[in-house]
Amino acid sequence: MKHGSLLLLLGLALPAHADIFTLKDGSKLDATIVSKTLDEYTLEVNVTSSIKEIRTIKRSEVVDHKIVSESDTEFEAIKDLAPAPPFLPTEGYEARIKTLKDFTDKHGLSSAGVKAKRMLRELESELAVIEKGGLKTESGLITPEEREQNALTYDSQLYANEFKRLVSDRAYIPAIRAYDKLETKTFGSKAHRAAVPLYEKLVTTYADAIARELDQFDSKEEQRQRTLEGLSEANRKRAEEIEREREERFAELREKEEADNVSWPSVNINDADSLDEILGMLDDEPRRIDAVKQDLADFEETGQLYQKAYQAAAAKDRETLEPILLTLEKARVGESYLDRLVELYNPEGSEQESE
């Protein structure tokens, strides 16, 4: 019995494939052969992912013909999921693992499926370390113990990566909030210092965008009113109802943000007061950033300070620990880091051991 027949009897589908034809003019056709003769091919050509057309081409026009399996084609979209990049959060690992599992469920018997399984094992192994408190850095995986010794440095890098991602996505308010978290929790760290210039640029760019929205607000509002007036009564009422619902949802969001003490509120571009509020906050930021830069010049890099403090706390070296704690406190480093150091030092426990 042929191998393919055995697979079919076992209920295992043979991998689907596509044909890639390279023509004399350099163009390539992603197609499936419908029929062929000694002189020509009749092809179903994939024009787009959803559009196909039947074409007949002469064999003499073809300079290359490759058969590509469906699994190989789909693998191209996931081949970079592993290795994972440094500082990838847990949810990032989980999303990649799910994608690879879906692929191996579908193409497990193919060569691409074997590669995907190797990638899957690699990600699952790393995730197991990360779920216990470890972290993947540019240097590789670190243990929970190693991460704890450099918690402020590694946490600041995580916060900075999220900030840069949001800036790249032009998610202005989320990016500003991410920077605020970076500054508030890990003030003076290497990652915080490196993020300040990008934050300055973000504030300027966003302030200019909001100012333009305000300049055009009256004309846009007039256009909106004209559009509403041009609608039928039924459609106008529906449009006005949708606007009211949107305004109510925004009001609820703002109420929740105030209750949660969110430092930078969401913006409603259809509300001049909302635009004015955020522009006022943005206009105040350059002066505050100047003060931050001055403060940064007064302090040693806080990630290194935290590491020194951790070593002193672990060694029960009070003389070294206390001045570093004071410096970190003056640098406005997040209290959770100071609490960790005090808990690690645990002078009561140390005294009990000496007794």
If you had to describe this structure to a student in words, what would you say it looks like?
The structure is a single chain. With 355 residues, the protein is an alpha+beta fold. It has 4 domains: 67 residues, SH3 type barrels (Roll), CATH 2.30.30.100; 71 residues, no CATH class; 143 residues, no CATH class; 44 residues, no CATH class. It has 15 helices and 7 strands. The strands form 2 sheets. The protein has a 5-stranded antiparallel sheet with strand order 4-3-2-1-5. A two-stranded antiparallel sheet has the order 6-7. A hairpin with a 2-residue loop joins strand 6 and strand 7. Helix 8 packs antiparallel against helix 11. It is flat. The chain starts with a helix and ends with a helix. The N terminus and C terminus are likely disordered.
